[in-house]
Amino acid sequence: MPLIAPSLLSADFGHLADEIEMLNRSQADWIHLDIMDGQFVPNISFGLPVVKAVKKLTSKPLDVHLMIVHPEKYISSFAEAGADILTVHYEAVTHLHRTIDQIKSEGMKAGVVLNPHTPVSLLEDIIKELDLVLLMSVNPGFGGQKFIEQTYRKIAKLRDLALNNNHNLLIEVDGGVTLENAPKLFAEGADVLVAGNTVFVATDPIKMIESLKKPVKG
Ligand code: DX5
Ligand code: ZN
Q: In sequence order, what DSSP letters do the residues of 10-32 get, joined into one string?
């Protein structure tokens, strides 16, 4: 089943409770929260207090994407704040196996994020341990960027790697997802699509979320 995770980065922060209420009424499966530290990526977003506040307003799983250096230092803090899924960048972690272990031991689902230039093959020796892999289809840091077409090839490679090693692996794609590319991304093997601008700029975000889940454009 295709899953959609709207990214709060594009939400109206002056009316965050209303935005969450809208997502609660929608077919959104997860809520994606982008944590940026101004070091790993050239932008600063929001942190633990916002995750905590969102947790109180929804029962949908919180999919927390850490774009920070030394994410291993904050694993228990994000678990306490209410993260259900925690993803860390391959490019930001030295002892990835240990970090994934720590995330799981805090009771969260664990995922690794790959920047557009990072090959899927680097996950060969860790893939069995992962609940999900998040493929960046833009360079992380900002919403509303253009989708990088190479992502389709990466999904196919990751699907192959998962078929041989981890049948339960979820493949998530993040960045530049639109009504136009969503059907192809699902067809290539993506399980979860993150959508920021496409959802929150839409005149009817609830309808947009529903449309993104349809196998054909509509
Ligand atoms: C980018 C973030 C994304 C972002 C996606 O660094 O990881 O989650 O919110 O935004 P759109 O869907 O607008 O490209
Ligand atoms: Zn993200």
A: GS-GGGHHHHHHHHHHS----EE
pLDDT score of 214: 86
How many whole angstroms separate alpha carbon 109 and alpha carbon 72? Answer: 15
Residues spanned by the domain of 161: 3-212
125 catalytic per annotation: no
Q: Is 84 known to be catalytic?
A: no
Count the domains in the chain: 1
Total-model pTM: 0.98
CB 179 within 8 A of CB 208: yes
The finding on whether 199 has its CB within 6 A of some atom of ligand 1 is: no
Mean pLDDT over 86-110 rounds to 98
Please count the other Cβ atoms lying within 10 Å of the Cβ belonging to residue 117.
10
For residue 80, report the distance from its CA to the centre of ligand 1, in Å.
Answer: 24
